[in-house]
Amino acid sequence: xxxxxxxFGGLEAAKALGKADNVRVTVVDRYNHHLFQPLLYQVAxxxxxxxxxxxPIRSVLHSRNTEVLLAEAKSVDARRKVLVVEGGEIPYDxxxxxxxxxxxxxxxPEWADVAPGLKTLDDAVRIRERILTAFxxxxxxxxxxxxxxxxxxxxxxxxxxxxxxxxxxxxxxRHSLPKDFRRIDTRQARVVLLEGLPRVLxxxxxxxxxxxxxxxxxxxxxxxTGALVTDLDAESVTFGxxxxxxxxxxxGAGVAASPLVRSLEVPLDRAGRVKVTxxxxxxxxxDVYVIGDVAAAEQHGKPVPGIAPAAMQMGRHxxxxxxxRLANKPLRAFRYHDKGSFAxxxxxxxxxxxxxxxxxxxxxxxxxxxxVHIAYLIGFRNRLFVMLNWGYTFFTQGGRNMRLITHNxxxxxxxxxxxxxxxxxxxxxxxELPASQPAPVH
Amino acid sequence: xxxxxxxFGGLEAAKALGKADNVRVTVVDRYNHHLFQPLLYQVAxxxxxxxxxxxPIRSVLHSRNTEVLLAEAKSVDARRKVLVVEGGEIPYDxxxxxxxxxxxxxxxPEWADVAPGLKTLDDAVRIRERILTAFxxxxxxxxxxxxxxxxxxxxxxxxxxxxxxxxxxxxxxRHSLPKDFRRIDTRQARVVLLEGLPRVLxxxxxxxxxxxxxxxxxxxxxxxTGALVTDLDAESVTFGxxxxxxxxxxxGAGVAASPLVRSLEVPLDRAGRVKVTxxxxxxxxxDVYVIGDVAAAEQHGKPVPGIAPAAMQMGRHxxxxxxxRLANKPLRAFRYHDKGSFAxxxxxxxxxxxxxxxxxxxxxxxxxxxxVHIAYLIGFRNRLFVMLNWGYTFFTQGGRNMRLITHNxxxxxxxxxxxxxxxxxxxxxxxELPASQPAPVH
Lengths: 442, 442
Prior knowledge:
2 copies of one chain form a homodimer.
Chain A: E1 2-4, H1 8-18, E2 25-29, E3 33-35, H2 40-44, E4 54-56, H3 57-60, E5 66-70, E6 73-77, E7 82-85, E8 88-91, E9 95-97, E10 101-102, H4 111-114, H5 121-140, H6 144-150, E11 152-156, H7 160-176, E12 190-194, H8 206-218, E13 221-224, E14 229-233, E15 236-239, E16 242-245, E17 248-251, E18 256-257, E19 274-275, E20 281-282, E21 285-290, E22 295-296, E23 298-299, E24 302-303, H9 308-326, E25 340-346, E26 349-354, E27 358-361, H10 362-376, H11 380-395
Parallel strand pairs in A: 1-2, 1-9, 2-5, 9-21, 11-12, 11-17, 12-13, 19-22
Antiparallel strand pairs in A: 3-4, 6-7, 7-8, 10-18, 14-15, 15-16, 20-21, 23-24, 25-26, 26-27
Helix pairs in contact in A: 1-9, 5-6
GO molecular function (chains A, B): NADH dehydrogenase (quinone) (non-electrogenic) activity
Catalytic activity (chains A, B): a quinone + NADH + H(+) = a quinol + NAD(+)
EC number (chains A, B): 1.6.5.9
């Protein structure tokens, strides 16, 4: 059988089938690593390394019956039972489609260049560079208005990704960066979080949305709900009657399922997800299972949420179904067990719901969040190094060593103040620094 | 005063001047981080993270009199005493040029695309991806000849970089990767090290070159000396009458000083370095100091080597000269103290010379190398995390978690075997794997 996508769902299915003697598994992914997406925002905000939240798929799937293939899946030919990849075809008896989702730019694909989303390690590294580069540019910028634009960050979408990114970025501007700069005060940076719906974390109970908003505002994040973005370019964001001048826009809104499932020619929902059967198969295709963020599953009339635990449960369920079929055992419908979900606001602050019952906020919620994330990280090494890096950041009050710009961005910096007599650099403006001391400049 | 380049020389000068009250320092670099280049090959071979061997320049230089500017230096106008950067000019009273060197492709700049060198973090990440991608491609490749090409790695230049890269890569193919692949045996990979001169590590005593060659060959590196490369393309390397078919060529030969010094209009040596005065100034320009790999300094008729300790000594010497000048003290000529240099061959193997006297090889040399490198790494965090990562790799017999391909390389993979009846993937060929077991493929 063939599994496309080694995210939470696909990997869990592969691991569960790796123990079966009577199955041969091929796992296809376009990257060589499994990614622990829930911590991606911490790579983007310089807390963690790329390797801390990822693991080579090959080293996770060492079973003898499992093969891993680096390949870009193009389409499924369900009649010929073939997965078409770039450069070839892979026949299957059963297929598990677990190719995930990305953010949706609604009807504005051109916004993707200006406002990158956060889905891959490359995205995280790119966003990290954009944030750090903006402060470098602000430090160089002689014009106060343009300096303010460089120090304004707009995050679109207040789901968990947007909220976590906004909180981490605001914390960074207040605690990690201030003492590094001479001409700007990074604590003056604006972090604006825009949400089209009436509240942040819309999937959470209203009381937790309120708490999250209050905590974000304590971190000096400007939260704007009911703010539908109508225009976006490299220098501004427009919503309603308002326009914010900014050089850094990050995108965390909407859900667009991987386009691979379109080739299945089965009914899709508005986000492009397959409306799966209770066995998690595509309607009419009993050998094609669809799981994780590409699946629109329902339970008691409520959608199963697009989060890691749901994808993992689906992966395990599909593995069981396949084994049961081979053993001619009766098959069972998928049932989602809601263990809860959490979103972090800042250092020691989170909100969340445990077992669909207990609403938590503040430090207790953060402790559950941290424990669960460490526990679910793949591999001993990742757990150890994530804890060490968190410990380092905690004890140094926000110290962040991953503040790397590895690309040469120097050519994109703003022009310095041009003045043939005076020094080209304006004198440092920070009050703490004795700019006017009579030091002979040598 | 202005310092261009925050490598070993520039950073040391800035740190030494950071304590002086009567000097204001501006450090200009096109990257935001200082890079510990001697360990770059360990990022390229998946042992260390990018952040483990780098530190944000701003966090290293926290003195009140020091300013950091991210900018690309274009030229020096020594008459107007101005450093010209992309987007502006920075006037100086004294200038320290510490912009380093890159590899030289001799008269073939077009080879740079095919055979990347190892000088920046981006280079290291790119080389890491090329190495890992080659094995992924080999695993997919149905044609045995092309598969061998993907599993052939040629490294050009057997200076310290080339030797260390070859040793680490050979170790990786034998110990870190074998159990990850099903269709290829990574232990069959060829690592070929080409050197135009008659021996490897030409700057070292002959006896150590011999020892290094023997140790490399024990690691199954094919060492070819006196091998001048005459042609190079995406599929082969030609030297003498020989041609090696390979998809991965890495470059570690030649030295080309940063082109910035050409604008000084002073005498340069063949590698483009400034022939500095005993005070390390450019001839005829007493306010322009040139240090590190852009300086061609001599001592007792022998060139000062282009290594980190020499650059650091130069940086400290220039800082002292500047302070002495301000204090109207007599100035002293630069004297290089040769503390030694070491090159690592493999796990627990190195060669080197200590204090220009003691020749060392094997484990003792490796211990000195490791100790010195840990001691000179910038910052407590880097030391701790490099040691932890080394410990992890050591105790897991080569376990390498940084095996990340973060770019989407899937589109560049070779075509799968096309055969409409049989499965598109050829059956696994590894003897350990029971390819012919009568497992029902589901």
